[in-house]
Amino acid sequence: MSGYTSDPRIRWTEWLPWLAAIAFFFAMPEYLSLGARVLIYILFALSLDLILGYAGIITLGHSAFFGLGAYTAGILGAKYGITDPFLQVIAAAAMAALLGIATGAVILRTKALTLLMLTLAITSILLEIANKATALTGGADGLSGVKTDPILGLFRFDIFGKTAFIYCLLVLFLGWLLVRRLIYSPYGAMLTGIRENTARMHAVGAPVYWRLVLVYTLSATLAGVAGALLTQVNQFVGLNVLGLEPSGDILVMLILGGVGRLYGAFVGPVIYLIAQDYLAKQYPEYWYFGIGLLLIVVVLFARGGILGIVDKIGAPWLQALSRHRSSAKASAR
C-alpha cells in the first residue's frame, strides 16, 4: 500500500481500519480510553513512518517533537489559561514544526551513526530542560491541572473516553489523509528515490537536502499534534513523553506493523498497546520480556512486519482474483 502511483484514489480496503474503529466505539465502550491512546500512538507512528519508512531518516529522538507538543498543550492549559483544544493543538504543532526545521536543518547534513546520535541528543536535552524547569513543567512530578474546554463547546472530555476517542479518530483521519496524499504524489516518489539511492537523486538535480528538511518538519508537526492529544486526553503530562524510551517504543510499534507501508503505523500500535495492557496485568514485572519476544519473532520471521505476513498470505488470493477478472473480461469480448 505504499509508494507513488499514478492512481492515488482510495481503495475500498483502505476504509477497513476506519470501519473497525467505528465498530470498536460501539462494541467496546469500556475500552474507549485505551482506544483513544491507541489512536494517538497511531498518529505518532505515522509521523515516524513518514521519515523512516519513506525518506530513510533514521532517528532515536522522535519523542522530542511528541514531548514538546505535549508540554506545549499542557503549559497553555495549566499555566496560561488557554483552554481551547484547537488552539492548544495548533500551538503544539507550531512549536514542534519550529523545532523540526531548526534541528533538521543542522542534523540532516549528517548521516548514519552521527545522525542517530544527534537525534538522541536533542531529545535528551529537552528531557533535561523539562526536568529542571519545574516552575513551568512540574519537573519530575509532572504537570497536572491541565484544562481543556469541551470540543466545539459541546463535547466534554469524560472518564469514559467517548469524546476523546471520536476526537482522536477525527484528528488521525486528517493526519492520514495528509500523509497518504503526500506519499502518493511525485514528492513521495522523490522521497522514496532519496531513500533508495541518494547519489542518483543528486545526479538528476533533485534538491535532496531541502526535501529532507521539509519532510522532517512535517513529521515533527504530526508528532507534536499527537503529543498535544495525549495531554488533552490525560489532562496531565510528565517526563515519560520525552527521552529514549518513548522513541524506542514507537520504533518498536512501527517495526511490528511494517516500516514504509503506511498501514504498518496502524497495525503496530494496536498490537503493541494491547499486548502491553494484557501482559502488564498478567505479568507486571516481566511484561517487557513478552514484548521483546514478540519483536524478535517478527524481525526473524516477518521482515516486512505483520503486514508483510498479511501480504504473503493474501498475495495468492489477489493474483487469483486478478486472473479471474482478466478471463472474465476476455470472455466478455
Walkthrough of the structure:
The protein is mostly helical and 333 residues long. Residues 1-6 have low confidence and may be disordered. The protein is built from 14 helices and no strands. It has a domain at 12-241. It has helices spanning 16-27, 32-52, 63-79, 85-107, 112-132, 134-137, 162-183, 186-196, 198-203, 208-234, 244-257, 264-282, 287-301, 305-332.
Give the arrangement of secondary structure elements:
Layout (H helix, E strand, L loop, with lengths): L15 H12 L4 H21 L10 H17 L5 H23 L4 H21 L1 H4 L24 H22 L2 H11 L1 H6 L4 H27 L9 H14 L6 H19 L4 H15 L3 H28 L1
Question: Quick summary of this structure?
Answer:
By secondary structure, the chain is mostly helical. Helix content is 72%, strand content 0%.
Question: Count of DSSP helices?
Answer: 14
* Overall mean confidence score, pLDDT: 88
Radius of gyration: 21 Å
> How much of the sequence is in beta strands?
under 5%
Question: Termini distance?
Answer: 31 Å
Order of helices and strands: HHHHHHHHHHHHHH
| Largest sheet properties | none
Low-confidence sequence ranges: 1-6
Shape: globular
Please bin the fraction of helical residues: over 70%
Query: How many strand segments?
Result: 0
SS content category: mainly alpha
